[in-house]
Amino acid sequence: xxxxxxxxxxxxxxxxxxxxxxxxxxxxxxxxxxxxxxxxxxxxxxxxxxxxxxxxxxxxxxxxxxxxxxxxxxxxxxxxxxxxxxxxxxxxxxxxxxxxxxxxxxxxxxxxxxxxxxxxxxxxxxxxxxxxxxxxxxxxxxxxxxxxxxx
Length: 151
Known about the structure:
Layout: E1 3-17, E2 20-23, E3 30-40, E4 43-50, H1 58-75, H2 77-80, E5 85-88, H3 93-96, H4 98-106, E6 109-112, H5 123-126, H6 128-136, H7 144-150
Helix pairs in contact: 1-4
């Protein structure tokens, strides 16, 4: 049996002044937080926020994949037995780097190609982001940390 894990990222925008949430009016003052999430048919396997100011490069993404493997081992032991994981991610530069390709090959992780402009392969829009938006709709947050805690 192979395990399929989807990668999704979602940016949550907010304006902060002195740690207070001001809304989304001025794009120059927006602070962003990025959520990286892997899930399968049973639910979320691994998620983490990208630290503020951090770029998702090949090194960072390999570290994320290491943590994903650890979580698969802990949360989905039945899928870990054959250690052949299938992953679907988009064509972001970090995902296509040589370093990430080497890591995936070394760790027996197969990538499902992401076709261009395919709305059929956006389950995150229907499954994950919708739930996040419903949970946070109409709420006010004072800090990015509060947004992350509630996500």
